[in-house]
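Subject: Sanity check before I submit

Could someone independently write out the C-alpha cells for this chain? I want to compare against mine line by line before I put it in a report. The sequence has 174 residues.
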Amino acid sequence: MNRSIIETLLGAAVLLAAGYFLFFAYQHSDVGRSGQGYPLYATFERVNGLTLGSDVRISGIKVGTVTDMTLDTKTFLATLTLNLKNDVALSDDTVAEITSDGLFGNSYLALNPGGSEDILKAGDSLTYTQAPATFSELITKFMLSSNDDKAKKDTKETPSPSASSDKEAAPAKP
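---
Independent answer below. Compare away.
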C-alpha cells in the first residue's frame, strides 16, 4: 500500500510538470494571438519557402506573422496577409522582402521601413516588395560575375597597342 501512494504522488508530479510545460509553451507561442495587431497585405511574384505562421521582422526583431497566403487568379501573384503588432507603425514606402536565416535557415518576411511621413493603416497594402532569389539565379549571378572579373583581369594584363608603339618610337640610349 505504501508503494502505491508513492507511485500515485510521482505520477501526479509528472502530470503537473507536463501541464506546466504545455502552459509555458502556449504562453510563449503565437497560438491564439492572431487577433492581436492589425492586417497589412503584400503581393509577390513568388513566396518560396514562406509558410503560414512565418515571422515578419524588422531589423531581425519579430513584429508580426504571416496569417494567410492566397493566389490572385487574375494576375497569378501571391498575396500575403500579415498581422503586425499594434505598436509598429510603418511608412507607406516600406519595402517587404522574403529572405532566410542563413543558407539553410527558415524563410521570413523582412520589412525595411522607408522615410515617408505617411503611415500605413490597417488593411493597406505594401507597395514595394521583393521576391526571394532562387538558387539558380544566385549561381547564374556568381558565374557571370566571375567571368566579368576574369575579363577585367585579362584586360589589365594585356598591354595596349599604343603603349607598345610608344616604346618602339623612342630612340634607344647608348
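---
OP: Matches mine. For the report I'm noting this point. The helical segments are 2-27, 135-157, 161-169.
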